[in-house]
Amino acid sequence: MDGKRYNRKIYLEDKPRQEAQAEILSAFTISPEREMVPTGGALGRITAQPVFANVSMPHYHASAMDGIAVNAEDTYEAHEQRPLHLKQGQQFVYVDTGNSIPPEFNAVIMIEHIHEVDNETIEIIEPATPWQHIRPIGEDIVQEEMLFPQGHALRPADLGALLAAGVTEVPVAKKPVISIIPTGNELVVSDAGRAPGRIIEFNGTVFANYVREWGGEPALSQIVKDDPDKIKQALLDATETSDIVVINAGSSAGSKDYTVHMIEELGTVFTHGVATRPGKPVILGQINGKIVVGVPGYPVSAYLALEWFVRPLICKYLQIPEPRRQKIEVKLGRRIVSGMGAEDFIRMNIGYVNGQFIANPLTRAAGVTMSLVRADGLLVIPASQLGYEQGETVEVELLKPLEEIKNSIVFSGSHDLTIDLLSSHLKSRETETKIVSSHVGSMAGLLAIRKGEAHVAGIHLLDPQTKEYNVSYVKKMLAGQKVVLYPFLKRKQGWIVAKGNPLGIHNAGDLARQHAEYANRQKGAGTRILFDLLLDETGLDPEQINGYDREMFSHLSVAAEVKGNEKAAGLGIFPAAKAMNLDFIPVADESYDLLMTASFFESRQGNALISVIASETFQADVGRIGGYSVVRGAVPLYF
Amino acid sequence: MDGKRYNRKIYLEDKPRQEAQAEILSAFTISPEREMVPTGGALGRITAQPVFANVSMPHYHASAMDGIAVNAEDTYEAHEQRPLHLKQGQQFVYVDTGNSIPPEFNAVIMIEHIHEVDNETIEIIEPATPWQHIRPIGEDIVQEEMLFPQGHALRPADLGALLAAGVTEVPVAKKPVISIIPTGNELVVSDAGRAPGRIIEFNGTVFANYVREWGGEPALSQIVKDDPDKIKQALLDATETSDIVVINAGSSAGSKDYTVHMIEELGTVFTHGVATRPGKPVILGQINGKIVVGVPGYPVSAYLALEWFVRPLICKYLQIPEPRRQKIEVKLGRRIVSGMGAEDFIRMNIGYVNGQFIANPLTRAAGVTMSLVRADGLLVIPASQLGYEQGETVEVELLKPLEEIKNSIVFSGSHDLTIDLLSSHLKSRETETKIVSSHVGSMAGLLAIRKGEAHVAGIHLLDPQTKEYNVSYVKKMLAGQKVVLYPFLKRKQGWIVAKGNPLGIHNAGDLARQHAEYANRQKGAGTRILFDLLLDETGLDPEQINGYDREMFSHLSVAAEVKGNEKAAGLGIFPAAKAMNLDFIPVADESYDLLMTASFFESRQGNALISVIASETFQADVGRIGGYSVVRGAVPLYF
């Protein structure tokens, strides 16, 4: 077959990111404008030129103590055995801290070391040395001294130094103006009604906030329709009013991806396509001397592209170095595959378990905003690298503070809605501690505990033989490891079906009969194991279930699927059905327990977790959800 | 002697800082108020409660590609050898990325993989698998999913997730209001006239900016005079309108330090004096249920006290952990002495030289704002520790980003005003590189190169025998080390005297005859060595010079001293005299050269430095200062 035959598109370039970046940086030659701002309001602003002191601090010889100013020579006779009397006015004057020292005096004696004889006379028993307890002119700041070079980001204490030096207005770099143009027929403003095919425009707002955080001034324009003339006009307008133009999206090579053609018509295109995953469909060009950056529509691609190609321009304008993220070494919990020829940017969860950092990749989908929100770190795989093996040590850039990662409880295993509640209760007690959970299913949670990749796993694994939950699995799969199984919840599993149960689902047999579109869970999920058992009991084969192979990763995902489709059905917990206003037909009462390493269970964090679970307020909050009860007076099982 | 006899004061407590902190933290029981803010404007705000998704993202099954939507079952026959035709409307519809998939279809085929036969018909040669290229409902976000727990600081990408989830307003913690009351008769607002004894009120502005940076809302009040009733009223007013009250200063134990008595009268004092240097005179109390923090007047003490006692309260209110600074291990370039019984907070310069971090203490004076501004790190010496030896490795908290420290050129030795200019020129060429200089004098600079504590030292050391500059010193003191002496400047040294030279100073003899108050430089400074030589030539003794023992640390300090005193005189460089509008009587033309390690001289940074020095623009800027010329066509001397 000739693959080209079906290809109506131009292909994107695969230009190395660094090369593309260097090109626009050298094309970006706009000199920063300066502005004077009042010093008190200059926090975080960047000095546009060296700043010099207008006055010295102190600008006079100042007393450093409460006491008396004297001429040191007058005091040389003073001795413990031979107290010396000094006369006010002639031989001393009283001074407080900060007072000016009269020119005839050159030392200060602390108030604690003088004795008042009468209103006019004091007694001292020790001589003063010249200049003692005097802050000389310019002790802190000398007039004409350079306080800051250009390119300095002003911190609170810096403002104090400026004011002390009489600099009440400071020359700072004007914030570069970055126009942001959202384009797309499918976009609606965030408060407009929702309909299938409509997408809320939120990238523009996010871009504006990134730009603000990096020190630029965003100018977010109206949404522009996918119309070549309108896009052209918007680009021209933006180059008139701003220093850098960002256009989103239409940066790919689709039939409605006009952006690249418009930039070509109006100016120059340097790059169309960089060798990265995600983030490939980027356009870098120039119109009327202004750099234009076309960023992809998918949020993760867009935010990364913005960081690669807009942040360096802002930093260049402000004359500041690009901030770099802290890096740490982590051990990989899973193998990561990467293709040659493009850099991969993998969002990672990082847990600190048993004294080491363990990292696992989150979804790579460019459309999943939450993968960036949830990520603790970013693994950048070079274009020449084919990936990494499980257990390998790699370097990741941190997206969250190291302390936050170190203080997080890594929760693995089955998804339950009470875990979020548990996390909230815990955080309001212990601000520093939070629960970071990944929903991988009971079996994977159990394995995470075995591999030392998690502190706690939520599991609800029904043993088909014993009809008991969890215990036999722990015995079999964690033999020899010191773990604790903590009885946590009794919860109801049942059929999640459309309101009014139009298909009349009451058991697995009904699913097959009604050709219901079943929303299954991923392999290793406790709910899937339960479903398989129900099929087995009914004598049904997976092939007889429509959708058996379609895997959802949480109860809420199952409920969302049913919500969108009258013919769908799923198995899950009551609160998921309730949250989406669906019907729920109970099937089983199951035990959802917490599996922990013994060392975590006995740790400070482990104690905090257990005491939250045992608290009245938490148990009451769980009760209010419905379909649940927390096991009271739980007795931990040690293995 | 009975020391108590002279003591009219109450002594401050020496309460451990951590104990004092724990007390006010447990007394601070104000629950945070919540407010709803538009999501687009919530950058940096802290969620006040868990935030859940209002809608799923996508909220419909969406096409992930441009192409056609099909029913996968209709495509199973397609094969490269047996292309399959599909009819528009019945068997497929065109979809663009983001479009909704009609309910009768369950897969998307990319536009690149279809061939249009005619207007109504397309041809495919490969079957589709169910759900391929479809973003299912909730792929990114599932309705009712918890997006953020409480206490989460919102970042740009988080705002995207909120908007995608239909959360257009977000519940955040109201910013706690922190009243700031500056007190003191000596204080004037920053734009008021200057007079001896008047101090510009700048602490309040700095406090307000710290509070803002930490997430609070500052309320800076007018300056309050040292009057018990006025202070009392200000405290009462502040407790009415704010969550935390900061009062500055009057926190010590002097005769006008009313604050502690006022707090005692109106409420409770928990602490008066913490065991820290600086920062000891702190007051912690409570009035009308509001925590009151009395901070010392000296800037460095004040800022540290604010960080110890106000930041934790703000963090507690917002339910966020206190941010911690990155720590690194450094080698001490000097011995540091610390008394028992109090923690010492030493501001440190840190240089990265020859692959190791070398740290040296800055001044410990609590009144020197610039010591905080200049500090790269903070060394906290526990109360039980007597200090550290030179060469010891200690841990310091970083006050500047690690990258910035790593990229800094450590400049030691003699002070010259062109070094600031050099730093500016360098920074505008290479944003990441800057010069960090400490003015320790030529001899100390030479020693810093010897000990591997600096990259470059500016030296102007006159050999009394040879009358040559620098070379003999380098030969003698750096024998066997690979260093480079780079000829940099010819500059004029001379007498710096009051305008009109009222004392008629033209040589060292005049100083003695006129009983001029001489402003000398510190030991090891090239200018002091020159002065000693001049004395020697004139046959004078140091004792004959008034002020010989008073040491200034820079040319500008000498000039500032002369500026403030008609009877003073000093020896220094022309631009220092010019900057302060003083007279200058030339004495000598001297060579101010740059001494570098050979490895630095040959490094990328070294090259950059030399190429700035050799540039026309830099040499022209130096020429404009006056009294200088850059050595043209300089030939580096290797040793």
If you had to describe this structure to a student in words, what would you say it looks like?
- Two copies of one chain form a homodimer.
- The first copy, chain A, has about 650 residues and is an alpha/beta fold.
- Chain A has five domains: about 10-30 and about 175-320, MoaB/Mog-like domain (Molybdenum Cofactor Biosythetic Enzyme, Chain A); about 35-55 and about 140-175, Molybdopterin biosynthesis moea protein, domain 2 (Alpha-Beta Complex); about 60-135, Molybdopterin biosynthesis moea protein, domain 3 (Molybdopterin biosynthesis moeA protein, domain 3); about 330-400, MoeA, C-terminal, domain IV (Beta-clip, Beta Barrel); about 435-639, D-Maltodextrin-Binding Protein, domain 2 (3-Layer(aba) Sandwich).
- Helices cover about 25% and strands about 30% of the residues of chain A.
- Chain A has 19 helices and 38 strands.
- In chain A, the strands form ten sheets. In chain A, strands 29, 30, 31, 32, 33, 34, 35, 36, 37 and 38 form a ten-stranded mixed sheet that branches. A six-stranded mixed sheet of chain A has the order 16-13-17-21-20-18, with helices on both faces. In chain A, strands 22-25-24-26-28 form a five-stranded mixed beta barrel.
- In chain A, helix 14 (about 525-540) links the parallel strand 33 (about 515-520) and strand 34 (about 550).
- In chain A, helix 4 packs across helix 5 (about 260-265).
- The first copy, chain A, is flat.
- The first copy, chain A, starts with 16 loop residues before the first helix and ends with a strand.
- Mean pLDDT of chain A is about 90; it is low at about 1-10.
- At the A-B interface, helix 2, strand 15, helix 3, helix 8 and helix 10 of A face strand 11, helix 2, strand 15, helix 3 and helix 8 of B.
